[in-house]
Specification:
about 10% strand; about 750 residues; 9-stranded mixed sheet; about 45% helix; globular; alpha/beta; 32 helices
Length: about 750
């Protein structure tokens, strides 16, 4: 699997990657329903009435004063373009790529030349942007932990509370709603075609910018006439670099730039819509990236492993609403993406004092990028003399040391087993470590770093120590000293005591694992396993290796080997819930259902929001306890309504119980999400026939026949439906086709 954002991304851009891959979706978890039900039910089909729904409270219930005040607020558009390094944008000096949309936005706004991402990973970085908190404070330090804790508010909640209509369109599965970023959004578009999941690993599931921008514009057209907050996330610059034409041809020698040019063009379509609808000038627009992209610098491809400026220096452009008093210009001081959230609220005029917005303002760890008051009454720009960043990817996935960094106007300090210091004025490429030559400068930044890390570290609401597991107090203290406040620790107390390896010294192991992942993607399993075994000999404590071997065995349906490898993985990392779900699947296939249930229960204890685990519980109980299975599947789709397999299985359970009216919406949703299966359309047709929607039933049976002309039961059911519509001759033809395809069905054909 090529990493979407780091080659071989088994978990990197979003822990959900493995939660989807740990078991394959069954074709149908239930036995094919005997279409015969229609034979006995043709005369008894009845009309099912729809219960009236209570309409939402009318906007007219607002007071006139409140509506008038709200009308003066600007609409707010937040655009995040994933994996976009600053020096590949025209207004930041790029010469090899054209970005006219971002350049025009920069002309109208304020360009922050030294914006620093707090973490070079998609999901954790967006948690920073939307909450205004550091990763070590909000607990989202990588993609191995639980969702964003409920005590952290997002700017979407603040805007919604202030009367805004809120919407988000995300372009990659790695920002799926189950991770907590959907809170506060009236509309959160994270639905991806089910077919995409069949052809890509979950971490690679995305959609092009053009589709996402079209979705965003469609939502804007339907919004009420009041201020809106829109977050648009585009994913295109992620690897593998695959821009559409004409960008593929134009940038054939540097496809990464082709992805950037394409994304910029599609953002231009959104800007054009805003201008044509007279919304652009009055709106606040902020465009930035979550992290950059290493193109081979320091031996790193893509991002997440190191924290050099190739991956943490990002573009950040703020176009204030007209009349704000902030002139266009450029700012050269280092700033953090954690400052975006307070900036959005401040420029929208949402003040904290004595309002319900005070809780979110109290959680912010940075001031707004722009200040509004000065002694002479003019507006000023807020300043900060340094910016923080970190990565726990080496730690959580491999058991190596995490990295922390602090960047001042001149220096970039990286805290690692072998510390690094770079003079950015003399060495912008960070090629010469001068920590031995400038110990005083390194000490100053190291002290600032430690002070920051000690400020308000993450704590779970229930007071439990995150990531502690069965570690001793001494080991827990060592984790805190490393700045780790997440939910999992992939290292043993012994490893902590002996000291963790510097990621710089582990590039061979890291790159070999990535090569193995590429080999798996090419179905070269034997080569991949050889590469992984080479790494395992050198470093037997890397839990991700038996996990990858177990995943490979699952794909080959070698259940015994999968169970052995995943058990070994869990020996090395007992808290790895993604291995638990995979092991549960292997054990279920081996008929060891009680053991399978134990492991899936453990996975859910680690992460109750793991809707894949709830789904697997439902599948396990589908035959023995349908009512329990319904509860579990309902839980799965409550967490993620766009989970196509969950919608299908829940619908099929209702179908089995002959609750056709309730089953139909779930089966329809599964089809809408891309499960274009002939049998599924056949089941939907049966539901329609049983709820007096015969014409719609005919359409579904016809679609089933188009997808699979040899599906005999669809022809039989089509005959029943046509007979109900008194279309006798076409009904006879369908009966004849059904009998020809399957003689066993002939006995169900009506005599007349």
């Amino acid at each position: 699997m090529r990493r979407r954002g780091a080659r071989g991304n088994w978990r990197r851009n979003k822990g959900m990657l493995w939660r989807l891959r740990t078991f394959s979706t069954p074709t149908f978890a239930v036995t094919l329903y005997l279409f015969v039900a229609l034979v006995f039910g043709v005369a008894a089909l009845g009309q099912v009435s729809k219960s009236a729904s209570t309409p939402p409270q009318s906007e007219t219930s607002r007071s006139a004063a409140a509506k008038s005040k709200l009308a003066t607020k600007p609409s707010v558009i937040l655009i995040t373009i994933d994996t976009l390094r600053a020096d590949h944008v025209g207004c930041y000096g790029a010469q090899m790529v054209e970005t006219p949309t971002l350049d025009a936005l920069a002309h109208d706004g304020i360009v922050f030349e030294r914006a620093i991402s707090q973490v070079p990973l998609t999901w954790p970085s967006h948690a920073v942007i939307l909450t205004g908190t550091y990763p070590f404070q909000n607990g989202v330090q990588d993609f191995t932990g639980q969702p964003l804790a409920p005590q952290f508010r997002s700017v979407a909640q603040a805007f919604k509370q202030a009367g805004y209509v809120t919407g988000a369109v995300v372009s990659a599965f790695v920002l799926d709603r189950s991770w907590g970023l959907a809170r506060g959004f009236d509309f959160y578009d994270d639905a991806f075609s089910a077919k995409t999941f069949e052809t890509k690993d979950a971490g690679l599931v995305d959609r092009r910018a053009g589709e996402s921008v079209a979705h965003a514009i469609a939502w804007l057209k339907k919004t009420p006439h009041r201020p809106f907050f829109l977050w648009l996330h585009l994913y295109d610059p992620h690897s593998p670099y695959d821009p559409p034409e004409p960008y593929r041809s134009e940038y054939r020698s540097h496809l990464y730039d082709g992805e950037i040019a394409y994304a910029d063009h599609e953002v231009g379509n959104l800007i054009l819509w805003l201008k044509r609808n007279h919304v652009y000038d009055s709106s606040l627009i902020v465009a930035l990236s979550d992290h950059g992209e290493s193109l081979g610098e320091h031996g790193e491809d893509e991002h997440g492993f190191f924290v050099y400026n190739s991956t943490v220096h990002v573009p950040l452009i703020v176009k204030p609403p007209a009349g704000s008093g902030f002139p266009a210009g450029r700012r050269s001081d280092p700033v953090e993406t954690a400052a975006v959230a307070p900036t959005l609220l401040q420029l929208a005029g949402l003040k904290p004092s004595k309002t319900a917005l005070e809780p979110i303002y109290s959680q912010f760890q940075s001031e707004s990028l722009l200040a509004t008051k000065a002694g002479n009454g003019t507006t000023t720009v807020a300043t900060k003399d340094s910016a923080y960043s970190e990565t726990f990817y080496p730690f959580s996935s491999f058991g190596w040391s995490p990295l922390h960094a602090f960047e001042s106007k001149r220096f970039h300090f990286i805290q690692a087993p072998t510390p690094e210091l770079y003079d950015l004025e003399a060495d912008p490429g960070e090629t010469r470590n001068i920590v031995a030559e400038q110990p005083a400068a390194a000490d100053v930044l190291r002290e600032k770093l430690q002070v920051l890390l000690s400020h308000n570290p993450f704590k779970q609401v229930n007071g439990a120590e995150p990531g502690a597991g069965s570690l001793s107090p001494d080991a827990q203290e060592k984790l805190r000293a490393l700045g780790y406040f997440g939910f999992r620790a992939a290292v043993s107390p012994e490893a902590l005591k002996n000291g963790l390896a510097d990621p710089k010294d582990k590039l061979w192991e890291f790159n070999t694992i990535l090569k193995a992942q590429d080999a798996f993607q090419l179905h070269e399993d034997e080569r991949a396993e050889t590469l992984l075994n080479e790494v395992q000999v050198k470093d037997p404590q890397i839990y991700i290796i038996p996990f990858l071997l177990g995943e490979s065995a699952l794909r080959r349906q070698d259940w015994e080997k999968a169970a052995d490898d995943l058990q070994r993985c869990l020996t090395l990392n007992p808290n790895f819930d993604n291995a638990m779900t995979g092991l549960s699947r292997a054990l279920a296939k081996l008929g060891r259902l009680d053991e399978a249930r134990v492991w899936i229960d453990k996975a859910l204890k680690n992460n109750p929001q793991n809707y894949q685990a709830w789904y697997q519980l439902g599948v396990l109980d589908g035959t023995s306890s349908p009512e329990a299975a319904k509860v579990f599947l309902d839980k799965a789709i409550a967490i993620q309504p766009n989970f196509s397999a969950g919608q299908r299985e829940f619908g099929m359970l209702l179908f089995q119980q002959k609750n056709y009216a309730a089953a139909a919406p779930h089966l329809e949703k599964a089809i809408e999400l891309g499960l274009a299966d002939a049998r599924l359309h056949n089941f939907v047709g049966i539901c329609y026939n049983h709820t007096n929607r015969t014409s719609k039933a005919v359409a579904e049976f016809q679609r089933a026949i188009e997808l699979d002309p040899k599906l005999a039961e669809a022809h039989l059911n089509m005959g029943f439906a046509l007979q109900l519509l008194h279309r006798t001759q076409p009904a006879r033809e369908e009966y004849a086709t059904a009998c020809k395809l399957d003689e066993a069905l002939c006995k169900y054909v009506p005599a007349n």
